[in-house]
Amino acid sequence: MIPANFTYHKASSLKDAIALAESLGEEAKYMSGGHSLLPMMKLRFATPEHIIDISKIQGLSFIKEEGDLLKIGAMTTQTEMEYSDLLRSKYPIFGDAIKLTADPSVRNVGTLGGNIAHGDAANDQPALMLAMRATVIAEGVDGQKSIPIDEFFHGFYMTALEPTDILVEIHIPKASKHSGGAYHKVERKVGDYATAGVAVYVELDDDGVCREIGIALTNVSAVPMRVDRAEELLRGKKITDDLIGQAGVFASEDCEPTSDLRGSEAYKRSLVDTITKRMLNKALERARQ
């Protein structure tokens, strides 16, 4: 299908983009890579009157460790993340997710910020952000703000971003000595949205006790969701096979899938159980190496 008519605006700077959004009002939408917004426009699920292209704004594409944080610019593409030596060596969970995200042509222009800011529970990166306890940095008419990821997703395609806000940066706690993460999703075909997906990130102390744990799910609720009950079960303990099995059960019980063309509710709960256990084992293996 063809999108409804809209007026295209190209922003040259953050200041320019925010001023445009403020003057054009709620009928304006930001676009970076466009791989979340454009399909919705083609299906007439979204009909913005104005598109503000922010893809050429300089200084928003980077991957670096600074102090006790991993910092990733919102305009960093999935491909840049896929081939980052830093992410490959210390944060392989990103590689897990990116290899399952669409295809190279999409990853070449699709950005981390766009994937998160769209507020779609079917996108892959939101679950990683929850598992890794990220903080979203946004800039708008009132200046810069920091939003903890657990306060970011408000509902179906709804986030904490105000209409003029632009997501500019993601902050993630720097990988510790004994930390590891893993992500996997089941999909009907390559490039499809997840039938169900699970992200796990774990930090161990020197004795192998779980110091911190993040478990988050993709596309089995209206918003990307954290599995609090499973995290509480594992935190502060040495993680055994029995605990991993119980965490999988908790995840399958606490998610909120609906039956659709990708599978029944029961099938999706079963997937969540299985994937959670596998990703816990994979994240633990990486943390212990």
Give the end-to-end Cα distance, rounded to a whole number of Å. Answer: 49 Å
Fraction of residues in H or I helices = 25-40%
Rg is 19 Å
Beta percentage is: 25-35%
Bulk shape: globular
Specify the structural class.
alpha+beta
Oligomer: single chain
Instruction: Calculate the mean pLDDT score and round it.
Output: 95
CATH top level class name of the largest domain:
Alpha Beta
Please mark out the parts with pLDDT under 50 across 5 or more consecutive residues, or reply none: none
Keywords: FAD, Flavoprotein, Oxidoreductase
InterPro entries: CO_DH_flav_C, CO_DH_flav_C_dom_sf, Diverse_Substr_Oxidored, FAD-bd_PCMH, FAD-bd_PCMH-like_sf, FAD-bd_PCMH_sub1, FAD-bd_PCMH_sub2, Mopterin_DH_FAD-bd
Protein name: Xanthine dehydrogenase family protein subunit M
Describe the structure using short key phrases:
four-stranded antiparallel sheet, alpha+beta, Uridine Diphospho-n-acetylenolpyruvylglucosamine Reductase, domain 2, Uridine Diphospho-n-acetylenolpyruvylglucosamine Reductase, domain 3, Enolase-like, domain 1, 11 helices, single chain, 289 residues, 3 domains, globular, 27% strand
